[in-house]
Amino acid sequence: MQLVTLVASFYNWLLSYMPQWAAYLIAGLVGMLVLIVFVLIMVMAFIYIERRGLGRFQIRIGPNRTGPFGLLQPVADAIKVLLKEDITPAQGDKIVFLLAPMVNFLPVLLMFAVIPLQRDAILVDLNIGILYIMSLGGIGIMAIFMAGWSSNNKYSLIGAMRGVSQLISYEVPAVLSVVGVVLLAGSLSMVGIVEAQRVPFILLQPLGFFLFFTAATAEMNRSPFDLLEADSEIVAGYHTEYSGMKFAMFFLAEYGHAVIFSALITTLFLGGWKGPLLPPFIWFLIKLVVVFWVVFWIRSTLPRLRVDQLSAFAWKALLPLALLNIVITGVELALWPTFPLWLIPVNFAICALLIVLWSRLFKLERSPVEA
Fold first, then answer.
1. How far apart are the C-alpha atoms of 142 and 101, rounded to whole Å?
2. What is the pLDDT of residues 321-356, one digit of tens each?
């Protein structure tokens, strides 16, 4: 039985005992509770996968004491954080300081409401689902600024301004890189985008995938774009003054954004739940974990950029390539509306050519010391 059918049956059962508005509210709360549990489980799984994986990459063991193979280490970390003292700066804005972690985590849950885990496993199938997700992405920017400003700490404020600059810079190419997917699918619905993929759109939109993956990595605050936590420069960035449960909310939100962006990449470019033999939901989870594996693989491999290189890369490299991708996709659809599969090698060749040409035109400037 599919999730939509279960929710509808539960809603109809509630109608026989209470008013319509109450049944609608309770059914919605139950749906949100299911999403919260799913996100928390995936966050704990991602934390474990990353810590064990980084241990392998860095030739060490990683967490292995708490539970079999260290599986309970995320639980132990959560208990430790909950027991820590909760400190609020005496001269800070206490209300905004309290609200910032909640505002940072809220978009993760709201975005997952329109992510289809399989054909009927979706809380709300909006016909403008991708616009809804992109609009919610801006809320995290506000949360970062709230945290830095309310802390009454110059390092926190500098880190917040750096974070706002980074997120705004990479939000633009991220949104533009999705336009090619929307043109191919002919729909803004997340379910419609998955159903339109005869083959995964990563084959038809390799440049769009590269741009979205890069911009999403920056928005997740992952290496080589993790300048919000450049300890040698700004301590820990915008959450320097946070401790206890409030810090745990920021930590949870960071991994929650990793889950949601991995789910977005899976839905937009990897065919979502589609796959042979295995159940659809299992295929979705496999693709989700593979995407996150690549993300932390990059983290363990590449050094971080300087802040000037970070902004320049977004505006001088990703933005022009995103605009070119829209033009190329539009021309191809105008000439070949059915988008024949022989365009796959052509698009990969175009993608490689543009990246090579742009890498020659756009070079990260070296500092005087490096020069």
1. 11
2. 999 999 998 888 888 888 778 888 888 888 888 888
Residues 295 and 217: beta-carbon distance below 8 Å:
yes
SS3 state at 107? helix
Q: How far, in Å, CA of 215 to CA of 174, rounded?
A: 5
Is residue 272 within 8 Å of residue 263, measured between CB atoms?
no
Under DSSP, the state recorded for 69 is G
Instruction: Return the exposure string of 297-336: e unless at least 16 CB atoms fall within 10 Å of the residue's CB, then b.
Output: ebbeeeebbbeebbbbbbeebbbebbeebbebbeebeeee
CB count in 10 Å sphere of residue 184: 20
Q: Whose CA is closest to 239, among 154, 142, 159?
A: 159
Residue written as token pair 């043109």: 183
Alpha-carbon span 242 to 55, nearest angstrom: 27
Residue 121 pairs in a beta bridge with: 118
CA angle 156, 160, 166 (to 5 degrees): 145
Q: What percent of the chain has a predicted confidence (pLDDT) above 70? A: 92
How many other CB atoms sit within 10 Å of the CB of residue 36?
13
Global confidence as pTM: 0.86
- Residue of 307, 311, 303 lying closest to 158 (CA atoms): 307
3-state helix, strand, coil in the chain (%, to 5): 70, 0, 30
